[in-house]
Amino acid sequence: MRELFKTRLFAFAAVFVVTMLGGNWVLSEARAGQSQTSSPLRILALGDSLTQGFGVPPGMDFPTRLERALKARNLNVAVINAGVSGDTSAGGLARLDWSLGDNANRPDAAIVELGANDGLRGLSPAAMERNLDGILTKLKSRNIPVLFTGMKGPRNFGAQYASEYDAVFPRLANKYEALFYPFFLEGVVLDPALVQPDGLHPNPKGVDAIVARITPLAVQLVQQAQMRRAGQPPRTGNTPK
């Protein structure tokens, strides 16, 4: 009887240990999966001073305010400020690989805001297009969904320059089927209440105005990134009505 009791006790203990270990394994796997799904989507904001936050207080730059707007919609995101004041499309292309980082830190999505300084300096629209095309090509090759923002060319270089410049952005957006916001400074640049004294850079109210307008497309960008994480092909971009 005593031997039978010991045998049953050992059997019960073995079942208990296996059950506990199995339960702990399932729990650890569930936690690991939860950790993976709960890690924030990383959005790279590649741009110039309009992205970097020239002339506005810390925390009032475009990436920070956009991240706040997306989080207010219960979206778990981190918007990375990769804006460099004075950068041209050539500068953005030159530092793209560094901005993307390694595989472990690669962003889930990107916002591309470049070209304003090309226009201000009267640089070739054709060269700007090649640079932006190179940026979009690299992002596409890495399966990174993009929100591409446009700019309007200065009119002081003549109508032909402005026409050639303006046509670059929608043409590239169509080529890459990217989400497209046609004019980054829409509704801001001609409003003295929304720009700094230089008449070019948005003030904090102007930044918030840009964020309010672009957020619906940014939400679509997040959805595309979520689908990419889930291994589903993202839907193609569009232009807001």
Question: How would you sum up this structure, described in words?
Answer:
There is one protein chain. The chain has 241 residues and is an alpha/beta fold. The chain has 2 domains: 1-38; 40-229, SGNH hydrolase (Rossmann fold, 3-Layer(aba) Sandwich). It contains 9 helices and 5 strands, in the order αβααβααβααβαβα.
Give the count of helical stretches. 9
Elements, N to C (H/E): HEHHEHHEHHEHEH
C-alpha geometry: globular
Intertermini distance:
84 Å
Oligomer description:
single chain
Proportion of strand residues: 5-15%
Q: Report the uncertain regions.
A: 1-36
Tell me the CATH superfamily of the largest domain. Answer: SGNH hydrolase
Number of E strands? 5
Q: For the CA atoms, what is the radius of gyration? A: 25 Å
Looking at the structure, the CATH topology of the largest domain is: Rossmann fold
Brief summary:
Helix content is 53%, strand content 11%. It has 241 residues and is α/β, with parallel strands linked by helices.
Task: Describe the secondary-structure layout.
Elements: H1 2-38, E1 41-47, H2 49-52, H3 62-71, E2 77-83, H4 89-94, H5 96-100, E3 109-113, H6 116-120, H7 125-141, E4 146-149, H8 159-176, E5 179-181, H9 204-229
Parallel strand pairs: 1-2, 1-3, 3-4, 4-5
Helix pairs in contact: 3-9, 7-8
